[in-house]
Amino acid sequence: MIDAIRQFFSEHIECSEAVGDSKDELRLAAAALMYETAMADYDLDQEEQTLIQKLVSEQFELTQAEAKELLVLAQSQVKDATDLHGFTTLINRNWTLEERTLLVDSMWQVVYADRRLDDHEVHLMRKIQRLLHIPHREFVASKLRHKRS
To answer: What is the distance between the alpha carbons of residues 70 and 35, in angstroms, rounded to a whole number?
Structure first.
């Protein structure tokens, strides 16, 4: 897994010497959580895929092609993962509360991309909120910001 991450980033994304592998792993973990969120309702449509690619591209300053390849790798990691702890533990160790809250905000955008809120999505988002130690107030505020009338 780590070798695949290193290979992906060494081939496609220029990183300075100061940026360690952990930054690459964090990108992959965040992308995997967004992908997992999109799959929570068992229906990954084109709009959700496009939104995730856009969010990943903007957040990590990647080209569209690099973001697309990162998401392919993230999808593979999600399929192989047995739980979310590997992704969330890495993020918790390295990201501030503000960065984690921004990730949850992006995830709510993905949840509402199909204009509906499924019970599985609610369950997953609450689980991720707890795993990322996001205050309930921030979690609800983010949810309401992205809820469509």
So the answer is: 11
